[in-house]
Amino acid sequence: MSVLVNAKTRVICQGITGSFGAQHTKGCYHYGTRVVGGVTPGKGGTKDANGLPVFDTVERAVRETGADATMIFVPPRLAADAILEAAAAGIPVICAITEGVPVQDMIKVRAVLDGMEKRPTLIGPNCPGIITPGPKTGGGTSGSDPYTNAGCKIGIMPGYIHTHVSQAKLGKSVGIVSRSGTLTYEAVWQTSRLGLGQSTCIGIGGDPVRGLSHIDCIELFNMDPDTHGILMIGEIGGTDEIDAAHYVRQHVKKPVAAFIAGRTAPPGRRMGHAGAIIGGADDTADAKIRALQAAGVEVALSPADMGVAMVKAMRLG
Amino acid sequence: MARLHEYQGKTLLAGAGVRVPRGRAVQSPSEARAAATGLGGEVVLKIQAWTTGRAALGGIAFAKSPEEAAKHAERLLSMHVGSFPVTHLLVEQKLSFARELFVSLSIDDAARRPVILLASAGGTGIEDRAKDIARIPCDVHSGPDEASLRTSLALLKLGAAERAVHEAVRTLFSVARSIEARSLEINPLVILADGSVVAADCRVTVDDYAVFRHPELGIEIARELDHPPTELERIAYRVEQEDHRGTFFFAQMNTTPAPGSKGLIGFHGAGGGGSMMSMDAITNEGFTIANFCDTSGNPSPAKVYRAARIILSQPGLVGYFGSGSGVANQEQFWSAYGLAKAFWELELSIPAVIRLGGNTEDRAVDILHSACKDLPARVEGYKKADSPAKIAARFASLVADSLRSTETAESSSLTRGWKPRSPRRPAFVGASSAIHFDVKGGRVWIDPVAWRANAPAIVARSAGLLKDSNGRPALTVAPDAFLAKDSDMIACEVECRRDGVEGLFVELDIPGLEAVREHR
Question: Which residue ranges form the domains of chain A, and what is each CATH number?
């Protein structure tokens, strides 16, 4: 069915009254996500534009709404505290959309999260979020006419490009994990057009110190009986994709396809993402592609072929 | 990641107690002569460039006299690294040392923590000797793991110098942490005959996201650049800082086409990953990318307009290629307004292919096509169903057609392509009779004569912001509120132009841009 989030997930937004937070709270709400409120210190007791309750603290929001997931839209310098506040309030899925969180702040956040007894799942920061698509059941124009009655979108991705397996021509679902937001959308769009559905799509973000890694997501997709194939989109820089290749070789029987962006990026140049820096022999695009191919992964060499590679790996076309 | 020059890094190290060679940064041969005189003895001159292998480039020279130093400086200051000129040299005392070490500190993204690499011997080519390098994990609070550091040092058999190296490594960690460095590399850290330890080189990158906490570093542009910021990059960065609606990233990459290339192109992406994929596609078609540019996150049309103006301030472009994410979750028609305005003002004469895939893409492509139909250049908009490879191929064929048609006896491959020009303005802009209303970063001009004829048509396209008041234009909102309506007014201008309605123009300032063109 899906991983991490589903139609029952109760979501709050930290930074719900900021312009970015408000815009995407509305987007998620109209998609059909069970958004139950939000947090802006000092605005507790008010309601947002969708009529959702605003609280002063995450702890209070959790107590009053039973929220079990949060999306964070607070400014970069406050993001680390926002993540820690959500973790302290016991929220199991924390999705940090904010771009520009200092690396040293994230190292400290990771150290705290890793030491927690009930460690929450952190997605991001600097990521588009996570979505478990539902079947299209409405127009998606308002909270009373949501796009779906059985999906969950947490983040800034366009909901309409996703397909629920029940409405997918090929009757199969894939899990998508990506470091790049915009390439995730591209991959979703391509797989949808080729007749595949998506179980869950996770944008893990481009920062070097982050929550979920490729391997974490591949592991989740591997265990999910309703994910029939896995599509991974990586970038130059870092070692996550090489690690994932080793993991796939040892543990994954499901079809896996991949794309690595940045083949023509000159070494040392950052391409939109802080993590995409060539640091050694193992993190060039070519090294990653070779490792993935050696693990039996169908690697698309052009981003236009991500969907085709997935279909090919699943032997559907 | 924002970089510091070697001399800037060394100043930080010296301040923390790490020894560095005596010396100073210079910008002219006479300054180099003076520096060498002050230092006395043999000196080394090093270009301050963000590249490795400076020696191999001829960017390092030794001088026995101040005269010789001045002569070397003249040559070194005329060098280019990649496309970009060398502007600073570091003149230092020449060291004679007994031993070289390599020390670097970086954030290990697998371990999610800092790690120090330590190895014997320094100099160039360290990348090829990966197996002899010790890895010392660090705690973000307490620094290098002490046991691991001691073991690594013992293996290096440093003798009496071990204590000094030990202290230097710990100090390097403190410096890196205090400035939130993403990486700090000393190659080499040298041990002198008397056992003292000196940092002979210093390469530092600082976390872009943390630069706001470190005004003391004087970093102009918190971005990854492989060269000191160019004037266009400075202008672009100011635009980014002054308009927080969406993001805007601009970096120059090449000023001349690579050998055998189909030409230099202006690149305008949307979204990091989508831009990378589009750059791959256009590079595969055989073009050289002049600049990287990314406007995303729902950018205002003013931001997209300014990005296009800055991109088109680069001479020699054979085309304008816009492509990022095909399914951007932003209202693409706003970007179309910004592009259409810039292309019209510059009377674009090189082909432009723009992929405007995403929300409202039909409307976006329609705006672009109709607003650009009378330009000398071919401007084509595409949608999410059109792949970057497909539009890159289309772009290549348009560029080939355009070059064929403009090829004349006197034009050579050196002079062909785009020549930056002043933006055109309707005659009433700036006229004493014209009426203007301020918006953020500019002003809306209205021609009172045209207004008398076209008022209803302009009002109808003004998103309810303008009205007619006894034959003169007036605002329907307070001037303060109108300041933030630049997007609606840009839309109004382009909509009027599409429909042949004259009399309104939005003048948007880009401080410094005209000076760059005139200087050239």
Answer: 11-123 (3.40.50.720), 163-313 (3.40.50.261)
